[in-house]
């Protein structure tokens, strides 16, 4: 197990009707906020009015910036930075899913930076003060409500890149599972794939003697999958929604990664996919993760056999660990199919036109991606081919 420091400042306010507390909570930190959100869904559901009324009841001045799209764009981030500077705003309230929260984090990181915010996503460290932010989560998926990182897409060149800093963890996050009832099934499933991928990125490690976090990863994976299938039968099952929402937070608040070095190659590879094709991140992950697993599983057959056994209850064949490992990968693909996600590029109507381009762009700024197995252009191309 590796040495580690762990600190997570985010206060979690969880449960029914908790969004009504947003004004009281924001008032502890600010009298003026940038209210950041996506399209019209929060207005259609009535959440927008609840948030605005709660803020106004506390005499909090509101400046709005909507329009966040999935795979959030740096152009809107730049607009948000200018709004905050012109209006002397030092607190951002993100109402939405991971895309909205990531966009808010990028704005928070860029306001006090002396250059273009994109610099912070291509190698420039964040070593300045970031704005405070808070969230009202509507889509359990990215785990951005408690994480220190964010991902942004640059329309110029279709690059999708990440950055992070401890001060980008939200001050507080409001999580009401009832707010997820209106999510389309596909969006719910994409969120489930995202949180599963966050766990698997940490689970597949070369670090030994990490038994506790192995077991925590496995338990969280089983919880997500069991409750995802419950939602297939009843989308308004509050308890299943609550388990999913809580699991999404746990999957990416870094607790499951303590003492171990995660991989993250699959996320980097998927960023190239969604950067060009604008596919939902979770759907991209349900395609790329099994392909990555098929490429690297021989690197550590014991770990892949353990995954198959502990997560999917597959008996370990001690005389043929490869057979067990492959059954585990197949079981993951079958689960994604059960929640109606693609597991091949062809399922998303994507062919091989850009796989060489994506493989080159993947390592344009780095020698390689991944820690479990180092992935360079050649290896990435093979993984894209396995995903076809």
UniProtKB/TrEMBL annotation:
GO CC aspect terms: cytosol
InterPro entries in alphabetical order: ADH_Fe/GldA, ADH_Fe_C, ADH_Fe_CS, BDH-like
Coiled coil spans: none
GO molecular function: alcohol dehydrogenase (NADP+) activity; butanol dehydrogenase (NAD+) activity; metal ion binding; methylglyoxal reductase (NADPH) (acetol producing) activity
Domain of life: Bacteria
Domain Alcohol dehydrogenase iron-type/glycerol dehydrogenase GldA residue range list: 10-177
Domain annotation Fe-containing alcohol dehydrogenase-like C-terminal: ranges: 193-387
Keywords: Oxidoreductase
Pfam families named in the record: ADH_Fe_C, Fe-ADH
Protein name: Iron-containing alcohol dehydrogenase
